[in-house]
# Entry
Amino acid sequence: MNEILVWVIKTGFIFGGLVGTAAAMSLAERKFSAWMQYRIGPNRVGPWGLLQPIADGVKFMFKEELIPDGANKWVFQLAPLLAAMPAMMTIAVIPFAGRVELFGQDFGNLSITDLDIGALYVLAIGGLAIYGVILGGWASNSKYSLLGGLRASAQMISYELSLILTILAVIAMTGDLDLRAIVEAQNTGGVWNVLEWNIWYQPLGFMLFVVATFAETNRHPFDFAECEPELVGGFHTEYSAMRFALFFIGEYCAMTVMACLTVTLFLGGPSVPFWAAAPWFVGFAAFLVKAGFFLFLFIWVRWTLPRFRFDQLMHLGWKVFLPLSLLNLLATGVAILFRGGA
Amino acid sequence: MTKIILNGREVDADPEQPLIHACHTAGTDVPHYCYHPGLSPVGSCRICQVEVRMNAEAPPRVMVACRTPISEGMIVDTDAAPAHAARKECLEFLLKNHPLDCPICDKAGECTLQDYSFDEGQGAGRTVEPRRKLEKRKDLGDVIVLDQERCILCSRCVRFMDEIPKTPQLVVSQRGADSVIETFMDRPLTGNYQGNLADVCPVGALTLKPFRFKARVWNLQKSASTCAECSRGCSITTEVLRNGELKRFRPRANPDVNGYWMCDTGRFAFEHANAPERLAGAALRNGQGWTAVHPIDALEVARDMLVTHGTALLVASPFLTVEEGAALVALGRELGARPMFVSPPKNELADDLLHTGDPCPNRRGLTELGIDGLSAHDILAKIAEHESVVLVGERVAELMGPEALAALPAALRMIVFDSHLLDVPAADVCIGVPIHVERAGTWINIDGHAGRIAHARPAPAGVQLLTRSLEGLADLLTSETRAR
Amino acid sequence: MVIVKRKTLSFSERLYLPEIVRGLSITFRKMFAKRVTRQYPEERLETTEVTRGQPRLVVNEDDSIACVSCGLCEAACPAYAITIDGQETDRFIEREPERFDIDMLRCILCGFCEEACPKDAIYMSDELELADYSRAALIYDIEKLKRPKSALEQRIGYVNKINQRWQTPSSTS
# Structure
């Protein structure tokens, strides 16, 4: 079969799935928050409000778009795209499942591509997400936006360090930058494949990583970029209509990617417990279930914890997380040294 | 004057008048229905009972105050318990047949039966017999409707017709419990004084047709004023509803001029005052049409016309107040002209009671200011000799005759101060003025009594006082003369 | 001066994580709690006889309006919401309103008009909703205020019941 066609189908499937998940998340966010507050949540559009994301999309498209006086128009219009793009690009290297065979056709592994330096790619592209936020905040010509953008950039830089250091520990264990290799190293066969997941070897790293993803995606309790009581809406205060929506799509895409990355790095990716040789669709389902839990966790935490103070955030990032992740990396290195290399 | 002791206080009393008059003069309220200060007392309602002792030794007795003559040193207590008890019993009888339709009754709110029932009466009736069923809507001519059920048979209306216009038409017919007020053979009432029947009626039995069910009396804003219909200048009360609509003129007691009465002509003379489409601000002729302008701008245009077009003829309305007349005379001095006012011919409404038949309420005031009354015909003849004319005051165009004014040549410069726009070819500037219920001032009646007219409601937005307009025009002319 | 003694946090509290888990467990349990939302247009508040909604005018069984435009409600209205003009009719009750406006934006639903009415012609209905596109449309005229007596029966019964507490029997009618 034509390799390009296969590639296009896979890209379309995964990318469509990502955007669809982002849309579903906007509904899930509201539904779960409502339930946690004894409410019902959106229930007017479609059965149980399922078509709410479509209604929102239509509304955003038809709303008037305002560009503030004195804003840097070019950058202002570019920023939302920059915010949404990196997350969508990162999804390319996530290994969702193994070899896919459908209708007698071989579609290869279920991921858009398997880069040798997948982990490096994720870190490199993920680091770009900051540009959307800071440019949007700066170009708006508004003090709230600027403060929101500055906070977001400071926060993302601080936590990216911990994030990278914890990933480094995982990479050190596997000895490979390819995410698929990392996944496969966690599922080498046998009934007790669940014990091969990195979460058992990197418990501290796992915890640090999960918390750092919250900070990376500007989610509660670290959503200083928006921080309504202080900054109105933070970096997107001046945005409206579809560009406003793009920031949100970007945020939800980033959440999805981070959830997928957590599953890949620490929970064995598509690895099914006690069934090492599971067919690809079972593995894919297992991946979705695991990622779904982390997506739920994002929402769950948001409606449970209050927002940190900014100095507490910085304190946590530089004085707690950075030393801990360095320690974690050191301990991993020492362990690898004593066990005779990975 | 005779001295009596009223409620422990020594007061002077007029021995020619009944005791109730002395009480009222001294400021002590004594309830009364059949008694009216302008009519002969009959003592039929018995509500005015007070406790009287002829001297300090005499025993107290409850007597009707309206039929008790004054005697030196009598001791009167209007507030004694036996007096109250007597009034209360009396009210119970009065209310026995009185229908409780106060929500419908036009008198509600100014009804003394309501007031005294509230003061003295009992809350609920004791009788179980049905009330009298009588005619509720008996038509008594063009002015009055009679509700026989509400009538308490005080006979004030009968006495009014007998004593004031001296045209007896109403009677109490039948006897005892069957008594009702009627006209002979149910003929409609006649005469120019029927409206007073509604005023003298202490309850809502006699009501005015034009006012029937139109407004509640407590919603009417009342101000003391003077009637504009003839040179008698009866003292009246103007009553204005919330939206500024005049609802009633009612006589106000003034022994020097009108006593307690007024004629129907004056009573119902508010059609002109309620007329719509008033001229607000001012208007300038603009080709065939008119342009609305501010009065000050209109005055400047008027000044230019008066300066360039020779000596103007100043024609005033007979409704001008003394104050406005003085301002007009001052303006005339500035222009070198002597103003005159339109004097319509005497009408046939004159009678020997109140109406003088002369429709100029301020004839005497204006004449004493040196403004002479001329007929419209004479004034038109004078206009023909002038290049410019100034018409001043409400209804001046109406009294001059709109047809006659329309026939004047367009070349004539005409400046009009009137309440309505005068759309005739000759008119060039029209400046709105307030009508007599919208301004304060003084009219001098035919006997020389000053009558104040009251600002009963606001003039339409943009209308400025006539005195102000005239003084403003005079000022503009002064500065023009000085500039030259 | 008040000295607030801060509680010293235990080690597990200082570690955050156990407390976060505790919080998460609370919110998770609440997801299955009973909902308090009322689905407004479908689920309405139950109106009872004491519900004091917007005032409405009673229309008798013979389609005549009970109001005689006596103006007592107008006088009683503390918000000056009512404006009445009367006119004559051919019916036995000689008077009826020509104009009866209630400015619903001014109305404070106090019920004074209901209490003042001598003809049992105005009652506080169970209608509570008030929305329109202009202020002028919210000045309700007589046609908007008319309601058949049957629609107000509940409130009329309640008012009569309350009035019986202090009314003395009387032969006057």
